[in-house]
Structures are given as structure tokens and as C-alpha cells.
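re: ur question from yesterday

yeah so i grabbed the chain u mentioned. its 230 aa long if i counted rite. heres the sequnce exactly as i have it in my notes:
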Amino acid sequence: MYFKSILSIVCVLIFTCAAFAQMEILTNAEIVEMTKVGLDKELIKEKINVSKVNFDTTTNGLIELRKANVDNEVIKFMMGKTRLQETAAKAEQAAAMPAVPAEPKKPVNSIPTPKEALLSAKTVAIEKDSIHPSIQALEKELMKRKDWTAYSLTLVRSRLEADIYIEISFVTMSVITHRYTFHVYDRRSGTIIAAGETTSWGSLAENLAREISKKLKTVATPPVETAKTN
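ran it thru and got these C-alpha cells back, copy pasting raw so excuse formatting
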């Protein structure tokens, strides 16, 4: 009986601690305190990554962070986490809204195949819901590849301006394996042109560029069979 009582108390404490951790919301003040006590910037970034946040990333907020000697890399990470959290909140809000009547289905012959959508595209945009990789780094790695440049796609910043777009997501709960997925869509029809995943081991931007190009080449062959992978 005594042992069961002790076990019950321990379980309550564990659940209480877990609940407290989930309720914790990081603000600029916590980041400043962690900086003052000398925590490594990588530890601070990891804490930000696994926590809910309510950062002040206005101009004045950023100035105060630098005055408190918060590392620029940490500040950039804070801004990225804020954007990511805001995007997730908007998605949840949109999902909770009443469904609107579906638009009449288009005739089957008006929906392009993945191959048709890819080969007819002139512009492409990149979107992501993760902090890494930077869009600029991925664009750079894609432009290095002959199998990508064979499509003569012009990179644009806005999805609304693009014929096709690439959507990149971090796989939740893959902190150890660092998995990222990608989907390539035809913007007008919603057709999924290609999809796949990779990890951040080595160079995430390079890995994504290689896997995206490989998948697109599979879709486009034989019209783009002359393109060679590096």
C-alpha cells in the first residue's frame, strides 16, 4: 500500500511537470535571461524550437534584444519561429471555418496530368512551413543542376505568380532523423506533380534540390531524358 501511494505521487508530479512544460510560453524576457546566464545559442534555439512563443519582433523589440547581447542568430531564429507559429495558427483558423460550397468540378479533360503540368509550366515558386532551408539556398542548389535547368523555369517569389509551386515541410517529431517532405503542385488545377522526402544530414538545400530534380525527371521522361543528374 505504501509503495502504491509513493508511485501515485510520483505519477502526479510527472504529469504536473509535463503539463507545466506544455503551458510555458517563451517571451523576449526568457531569451534575455538565458543569454545573461551564458546558455549556448544552440541550446537557446533548441528551446525555442520545442516551445510555444510570444516574441516581440517589432523594430523596438529587436533593438532591445541586441542591447541585451542576444546573438543575431538567435534573434533570426526567434523571427522564424514567430512566422511559423503564425502560419500554423492561420491554418487552424481556416480549418475551423464553415466549409464553403465546392466549386463545380472541371471537365476531366481540363485537368492536366503531372507530366503535362510540368512541361507546360514557365514559372515556379517555393513555399515552406519550416525555418530551414532558406529559400535562397534551395534556389541556388536547384540552379546548379542541369536536370533542373532543363525545364527553363523562372523562379518567382509569390505562389500566386507561379504556374507550379514547391511546398516544403518539416516532419513533426523527427528531431533525430531531421526529415523533410516536399510536394510539387500545379497551382491552377491542384494536380500533384511529384512528392518525396529527404533529411537535413549533410546539406538540406542540396538534398532537397537533388530529390526534387530526380522526381521531376521521372515525371518528365522521355521529353527531358537528355538532362543528366550530377
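noticed a couple things. Strands lie at 25-26, 52-53, 123-128, 154-155, 164-170, 179-186, 192-199. also Residues 72-96 form the longest helix (25 residues).
anyway ttyl
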